[in-house]
Structure formats: structure tokens, C-alpha cells
Predict the structure.
Amino acid sequence: MSSIRKDLLKIASKSIEQVLPDKAVANEVSKIHVNGLPYVIAIGKAAWRMARALYDCLEGQVAAGIVITKYGHSEGDIPNFRIFEAGHPIIDEASLQATRAAITLVQSLKPTDSLFFLVSGGGSALFELPIHGITLEDLKKINIELINSGANIEEINLVRKLLSQVKGGGFLNFCGVSKIVSLVLSDVIGNALSSIASGPIYFEKIDISRIKQIILKHQINLPMEILVKQMEEASSVACNIKVETHLVGSVETMCQSAALIASQLGYNSVIREMQLQDSLEAFLDRFNNELRFFRNMANQNQKSYCLIYGGELTLKVAGAGKGGRSQHIAIKVAQLIDGIGGVYFLAQASDGTDGPTDAAGGLVDSKTAERLREKAFSLESAINDFDAYHALVQAGDLIITGPTGTNVNDLILCVITPDQILRE
């Protein structure tokens, strides 16, 4: 493995370490006054790590707790906690069972009890109870359509809220306490609290006209007449519950850490964007222009540059292959930089699981396409079939980290070295 590829993997690994919830949770809990033995609900892909960190900070003084996380993201038992694993990105029966357990716990609490609510990305699928008249199969079908439609996360979560008893502040209806302390690890651009995990304890009035626009724009098959009627009959949200919120990590922290680490390794680090939410096509157009600009800068200055991006691009999935967003971005860039020397590109999911795979992403370079040609593997077919996983395996470019314990969007890094010739 080249030194540059090792550097990119190190930058990604170390910057993701900076947004692990352990230290951040400890720092915030030290500022919070806790009355009695608190209860804890933790949801999302980082739920186990957040719950464990809180338990340690409180020296085990927890009355009871529930963790709801993605399959494979739990790291064992936590005393006084029930640990649930469920489906992500597609909801399953385990999601509903875990959510019902959380509801049962908070319904038993008194106004004077203390409740911590720990939130991280992935909670939209993991924490769910559909409105009456919507089945689990309905939810699965609609969620698959949303994820594959090219809709961004804000649009996806707006539609999800319409179908849920616990999203958009709905969970407050079940809580017996008068105050909730929320620790939030954000995977949403701009850190809008009502969007992270679809905002179970942050009330947001549903905008039916906006949802209709989303459904028409992305051609989502939704029974709108039934849903509007159910919204009209929905109970009001218990807005009298006070919510105290502490943000414990975000994509901005990850990108800033990546820039510092890249600089320490000798690169000219440049944060290009920390709030990516474009379509893949729009990003590639922009990236192609930036690639040419920084190639010229590298040659003029005889220095290597490391470009840094954070956020979440949108894809409209049309193939049935195996892969995820970061993996697909990587092979698209591999096609773009084919024959351009001295370019290395990493796209990685911060949680360590990109899409429904065991991979975190991909690390491609100017010779990825050539390596695939030597193996008679069609990069173009992999792109058309959305089969990035197998393309990256064949090229030796797949990144597998295992679950990281955090989730703050995706990280994109590109190293550009001098003394190479631009392809016209």
C-alpha cells in the first residue's frame, strides 16, 4: 500500500475518533445536574456507545435504560439496560418491539423522575411505531422507495414523520416526566434537532402541502387521502415537557479534525464543504472543476493538497447490485480520474457501515480503473448496476472498518500530488 493511501486511511480513522461519543458525552454530563437515579433511552447507530459513556459518567447510578441500535452495533451488556438491535436503513419488526419497550418504560415515569434521551443518526429506522392503519410492510415499502428515490434526508424524514406516532415530537405524548435531558450526536446538515432521527422529542407541525410536493417530485407511492385524514385525527403533542439539549458531535467537528491531521502529515489541507447535500451528479461536476484547479495549484507550488468534504450526497438508485452511497461515489470518481496521475480519493461512512453492507466505503486512485480492466471487470457495468461493492473488492479498494460507534454523515477526502499531467 502506498504511503498516500495509508495517510488517507489514517486521516479518516483519526478524524472519526474525534467524534466518538465517549469523551463528548462525558464533557456534557459534567455540566448537568441530575436528580436521583435517572432513566435512559438511547436510539441510533451510536446509541450503545453513548449509553455506555453516560453510564460510566454516572458511575453506574442509572435506574433503568433502553438502547436501540443497528444490528452489529452493540458491544455487549450494560448493567440496568435492555439492549435491542434492529433494522437499518430498512425498518423491521425488531424496531417496533424495541420502540414499544421504550414507550412502556417512559409511560411508567412520574413528573419528578429524571430522563435522559440519547439521539444519534439512524434513529429514524430504529425507533418507530407507525400510525394506525399503516402496517410494517407499508412502512418498509415506502422507506425503500424514499431511500432509492434520490430524496435528501430532510425530505425523507418529513414523509416518515407523517407515518409515525413517535417522530416529530410524537414520543413526548408517551412520556410521564416533566423534563428530558437530550444528548445529540448529529448526522444532519445544520444540526436541526427536529430532523436528527426525525426528532422524536422535538415538535414540528406537519406541512401536508410540502409532503405532497415531495411525493410528486420523487414519485413516491403514498395513499395521501388516508394519511391526511389520519393526521387530522392525530392527538396533540405534549409540548409542556421541557427539553434540555446538548449537542455532543457533528460533521463539522469531523472535517475540522481531518484538516488538522492532514496538515500534520504534511499536506496543504483545504476544507471545501462541510454541509454537502447535493446530488451525486452535481457534486461530480463541481469536483471535476476543483480537481483541475488544485492540480494546477499542486504543480505550481510543488505541494500535495488534501481536499476535505463532509455531508451526505443523494443518489437515485436504479440497479440491484451491492453497495452503498460512499462506495458508489468512489467508483464514479474512479471513472472520472482514470488516467490522471497522482489523485487519490476516499469516501467513507463515519459509522463504518455504508448502506446495507459490511463496508465503510472505498479508497480509489488513478489506477483503479486500470486494475479492473486487467481483471476483465467492467467498471461501467458496476456503475450502471449500482454494484460498487464488488468493483471495489476486485480493485483492492474496499474499506472495511466495522461499526465505529459514531454517526455524523460521510467523509470525503482527496489527495492531489504535483508533477502529473492533466488529462484534457
Summary: The CA atoms of residues 146 and 281 lie 18 Å apart. The mean pLDDT is 92. The longest helix spans residues 280-301.
